[in-house]
Amino acid sequence: MQAPATTTRDHVRAILTLGLPLIGSNLAQFAINMTDTIMLGWYDVTDLAAATIANSFYFVTFIVGAGFAAAVVPMVAASAESGDEVQVRRVTRMGLWLVVFYGLIFTLPFMWSAPILRAFGQDADVALQAQAYLRIAAWAMIPALMVMVLKGFLSALERTAVILWVTVGTAVLNGFLDYALIFGNWGAPEMGIRGAAVASLILVAISMLVLFAYALRVLPQYRLLQRWWRPDGQAFGQVFRLGLPIGITSLAEGGLFVASAVMMGWIGKIPLAAHGIAIQLASLTFMFHVGLSQAATVRAGRALGRRDEAGLRRGGIIAIALSLGFAALTMAAFLMFPTALVDLFIDPAEPERPALLAVGVLLLAMAGLFQLVDAAQVMALGLLRGVQDTATPMALATLSYWVVGMPVSYGLGFVLGWGAVGIWAGLVVGLLFAAGFLMVRFWGRSVRIGEVAA
C-alpha cells in the first residue's frame, strides 16, 4: 500500500503504479471482446452483426449491476485508509449480495430477447442469432458481476497485479476457446456465435474462482466469507445508495452507444457491422482512460479517508493530464491510419469488404474526434466517485447523453440525412457536454473535502 503522495513526481508514480496494471487488465479484458469480434467477423458477417447487437443488449444490463461493484472501490479505499477492516469486509460482502440479487432478476429478458430486438427494428435473422448468444451469456451474468466486486475490492487495497495476470490469462485462454468453438477446430463442435458465448461463460467462472482464492489466501485479515449468509442492512444500504447512481450513469452512457447501434441497424447490416468494428477500436484506446479513472477513484478515496484536500487536487490534475495526453496520441492515430485499422477486422475474401471499409473508415475518423472529450468525462467521473459524489453526476451525465447527445444523433443521422456519420457526431456532442458539466462539478464543489454530496 502506497504512502500519501506529496510531490508531483510522487503523484505520477502513485497513479501509474496503481493504474498501469488496471490499464493492462482492462486491455486484456477488451482483448477478449475484440477476439470475439475478429473471429466472428471471419466466420460470418451476420454473426458479427448479431454479436454487436447482443453484446450491446448484455452490456446495458451488466453495467447497471456493475455500479454496485464500482461503489465498493471508494468505500473500501476510504475505510482501509482509516484502518477500519470491519467496514472493508462489510461493504465488500454486501456488494456481492447486491450483484447476486441483481443478476437473478435482470437476466431473464435474455432468454426471450429476439422479439425485443425485432421491436427495435433489427433484422429477423440478426435478432435470432443474438438471442442464441444471449441465452448462453445469461448464465455468465452473476459470476461476471462477482468478478467485478472482487476486482474492486483488490483495486481499492492496491492489489492490482493479480487482477492483471488473471485477466491476461483468461484473454489467452479465450483465444484458444474461440478458435475451437466458433470454427469447430481441434475436434470441437462448430458453434459459431454460440461458441463465443460458451467461451465467455467458461472464462468468467474461472476468473471468479481464482480471485476468490487469492483474496481468501493473501488477505485473510478481511475474512470476506465470515458469516457471509448474514444480512447487514446498514452496509447494504450504503453500497446500494452509492452504487445505484453509478450504475444509472453507466447505463445512460452505455445506453447512448446501444441506441446508436440500434439506429445503425435501421440503416442496414453493413453500417451496423462497421459500427461494431469502429466501436471496438475506440473502446480499445478507451481502456487506458478507464484504467487511469479507476486509479483516480482509489487515490481520491484514500485522500478522502485521510481528509487530504491538497493531495486530492494535485492528484486529480495529474491524472487528467496523463489521460488527455494519451487521448491526443490516439486521436492522431485514428485520423492518420483509419483504413489499415478497420481492415484488421475484415476477412480479405469477404464479399462485403469494400462496403465495410468505406463506412468503417468514416466512423473511425469520427471516433478520433471524441477521444479528448471521452477521456475528460471518464476521468471526471472517476474522481467524483472517489469522493463518493454520485447522485448529481448521474443527473448531469443523463442530461448530456440523452437530452443533448441522442437528439443530435437522430437529427443529424436521419433528419439531415448524414447517416452513420451523423449518428456518431451526436455521440461527440453528448460526450462534450458531459465532460464540461462533470469537470465543473468536481472542481467547483466536490474537490472540497467536507462539502462532498451524499
Report on this model:
The chain has helices spanning 8-43, 45-81, 85-106, 113-119, 124-137, 141-156, 160-183, 193-218, 233-267, 269-306, 309-336, 338-343, 353-369, 371-386, 391-415, 420-446. The relative contact order is 0.13. The chain has 16 helices and no strands. It is 82% helix and 0% strand. It has one domain (8-446). The protein is mainly alpha-helical. The longest helix has 38 residues, at 269-306. The model has no long low-confidence stretch (mean pLDDT 87). The two termini are 27 Å apart.
Based on secondary structure, the structural category is mainly alpha
Count of discrete alpha- or pi-helical segments spanning 4 or more residues: 16
Q: Sum up the overall morphology in one term.
A: globular
Strand content: under 5%
Rounded mean pLDDT is: 87
Low-confidence sequence ranges: none
Note the run of SSEs as H and E: HHHHHHHHHHHHHHHH
Number of strands: 0
What is the radius of gyration computed over CA atoms, rounded to a whole number of angstroms?
21 Å
The domain tally reads 1
Alpha-carbon distance between the termini?
A: 27 Å
Please bin the fraction of helical residues: over 70%
**Main β-sheet, in a few words?**
none
